[in-house]
Design goal:
The complex is a heterodimer of chains A (454) and B (475). In chain A, a hairpin with a 2-residue loop joins β14 and β15 (332-335). Chain A is built from 21 helices and 18 strands. Chain A is globular. Chain A has 454 residues and is an alpha/beta fold. Chain A has a five-stranded mixed β-sheet. Chain A folds into two domains: 74-185 and 343-381, Periplasmic binding protein-like II (D-Maltodextrin-Binding Protein, domain 2, 3-Layer(aba) Sandwich); 195-340 and 411-449, D-Maltodextrin-Binding Protein, domain 2 (3-Layer(aba) Sandwich), CATH 3.40.190.10. Chain B has 475 residues and is mostly helical. Chain B has two domains: 2-200, no CATH class; 207-283 and 318-474, MetI-like fold. Chain B has 21 helices and two strands. Chain B has a two-stranded antiparallel sheet. In chain B, β1 and β2 (89-92) form a beta hairpin. In chain B, α4 packs antiparallel against α5. Chain B is flat. Classes of the chains: A alpha/beta (454), B mainly alpha (475). Chains A and B meet through α1, α4, α13, α15 and α20 of A and α4, β2, α5, α7 and α18 of B.
Chain lengths: 454, 475
Amino acid sequence: MKKKVLATLLATAMTVGCLTGCGGGAAESPAAEAPAAEAPAAEEPAAEAPAADEAPEVEAPATAEEGTDPVANLIAATTGTVTLKVWASEEDQDLTNKLLDDFKAAYPDVTFDITLGAESESTAKDTVLTDVEAVADVYAFADDQINDLVNAGALQEVVANYTFDVVNENATGAVEAAAVDGKVYAYPMTADNGYFMFYDSSVFSESDVQSLEKMIEVADAAGKKIAMDISNGWYIYSFFQGAGLELKLNDDGLTNTCTWNGPGGTDVAQAILDLTASGVLVDMSDEDMATQIAEGNVVACVNGTWRAETAAEAWGDNYAATKLPTFKAGGKDCQMSSYSGYKLVGVNPHSANVGWAMLLAEFLTNEAAQTARFEARGLGPSNLAAASSDAVQANPAIAALAEQAAYATPQRVGGNFWSPAETLGQILASGNPDGTDLQELLDTTVEGITAPVE
Amino acid sequence: MKKALNAIGNYFKNIGIAFVKGDVWVKLSAVLMGAGYMARKQVINGIIMFLVEALFVVLCVGYAAPNLAKFGTLGTVQFEQVFDPLTMTSTVNDYDNSFLILLNSIIALFLIVVFILFWIANMKAVYRLQIRKENGEHINTFKEDVQSLFNEKFHITLLTLPAIGIILMNILPILVLVAVAFTNYDQQHMPPNSLFTWVGWSNFKNLFTDSVTVTFGYSFRKVLTWTLEWAVLATFTTYIGGILLAKFINNKKTKLPKMWRTLFIIAIAVPQFVTLLLVRNFFADSGIVNTFCTNIGLTDFLRNVGLVPSNLSYIPFLTNPGWAKVMIVIINIWVGIPYQMLIATGVLMNIPEDQIESARIDGANPFQIFVKITMPYMLFVTGPSLITDFVKNINNFNVIYLLTQDVYVTSDQLLANSNAKEIDLLVTWLFRLTNEYYNYKMASVIGIIVFIICAAFTLVTFTRTIKGDKEEEFQ
């Protein structure tokens, strides 16, 4: 009897457990729940067409076939409340909230329940990949994550535009960054996520900042430092790429091709060793740079627009920014390259309201939104019209990015790149303490970078 | 061991007896559960049994069978989605989700095992009823059965909820995670968009292999060595430190002992992660401690001695492997000692005063008393907690991770190639593999290894320290 009762209870508990399990499983098929799934509403588009007056720049892209307006279809087919979850970075919350209100106002006939969560663009991937089905319907992320996100099926392909032409109204680089294998998977939001050189113009003249060696000389004379996060794959790339060595993602979208250990590779490694041996160019994390700039020890640094405010505050009128300098490798001057960076907005294909999510993503990245984002936070627009405004053109950081753009490449690299490159930077920045042969050092790094992915 | 075997033997013998000696109703119970109860007029019991059986059959057909059918492959139908630009909606095919298949199959298997045990218990109970009836003994009514659950069988009622909790929260997830170690579940095989499947022991092989591209073997040895070094250092430094601190505070010459004790307890009251993150900033390369050391000339001195690499203008407290390891141990002493002090204070107060008194009369000096009386007593009383501490330190995620995350960059290329760092414990390595690299399969393998190490260590030491005869040995 004793065992029986226990067993009964256990069995009941297990039953409950697995019934909920079943429930979870049944709710899997998101398409079945999309409110617009099988509404044959194609006949009533004429009734109301608020989309037309909502977005003045509708240019009827390829999708508006035979007078059938998909947005009107969608509005007609939407009966219940449209629930959407949006992720934007902590700093972008106020602006996004305002844009969400505008979005709701643009479609007065639809009831929305939109919640806004905070998720940094730089870490969006980490949260998204944990559970692809549980993420927000619309989320912002940095373009370096796009490959992993597409591989994991976390991005809805942008097969059609409804309120503006995403491909032609944004800068070519931004659209390239939002595309994988020629297919666009996201909506460009900003074009300012790359890096360049900040400097204090009271220390450096405009001709000084053309060459890293010259900069070191000047800074040394002033007893100050130049900062760069060398022990970071993202930044160390600028030396090797600048010297003409190659690092790229293979067609499989997972593994890398890397020629850093090829001819000229050791020259670059030696150059980094020489540059840091001066003690003037120092390996420093982004956080440390902020304090060191404020304290006045660092008078120039390789960093991005997110540090523009720190630098502008510390240096006041002497705050200046320009493209990255050249450096000497194997006796010749090489222009440092960089990764161009964009912030993108993506739509989760597992969303129950994919249609609305796409419309919202367009709304958050259209010209008006990008202009508002620049005005509120100084973020450089990827939208051509927004970027051509005088205010944007006059911003030193954005101008420097534009200057660097000629030497920048979009970031397309497999996950195996980061750890080995970071360690290479660490070893070189600390002066190769074990005295490892440079060729051997690069060989091991490249082995790690190009390691097969199972 | 023999006892256990006997018990298992008896368990199955009893079913045999029930089958052989049971009457028609008992035999019928094998197919139609509840029949035996019905025959003895326990109608409600009979109905419940029957319902349970019916439910089980429904579950088998509707839940267990479809999942278990795919258990061998973990699914074959790839996720496909088509978006219609005109209606702005997507359609999804009827795809397989490998993880759900794995999870549901394990739940299903578990249910089946539980049901078999339940069925066996039922057979025995029904046979017992038959014997009671034959002997003319009293057969409980349903009401009496329920009442017994609140009286002589109250322990069953009490333990049901915790037992269910442990099964749902611990046992099932652990089984799933163990199963993951035998699959290729990683970033390239993530449900729902991709399938993963069984790969046998190949992940375990990888963990013990050194090759040009697979450096898991090398990293595993390095990380394991540091994990054990760390666990020993961390446990003993805080243990000895805690006892000494408690002794100092308890000393009659110490003024204001209560104040000192309270001050150290305040250190516990501040959440550990706050302390650790603050300390990490203090000891950053351009942190306050470094500024101070530079100003008083300590940095230059250390550089001249050769403890700080000559090209650095700061002390690499948390960024150089050697420095970081020492700093981690020291910071852990600081964070961990107050806990040990609390425990030690309690134990020290209980040392029989007469032993110390007689030792003193015999002419023992304080140091001798400490070594010959206090320490053996402490070790005897706190032995088990010392072992627990050691195991806890093997898995001491907080200290290592919070102090070094985003700060420490490895300069060992082979470690870097398998995403490990010199200061990683097995558990922080595991965390990084899952959280940053989505390498669930390797993380699962490492998790199993950590479990084996901890379990083996605990078993061996516990059986050696808490054996019954030790108490007399101490006396």
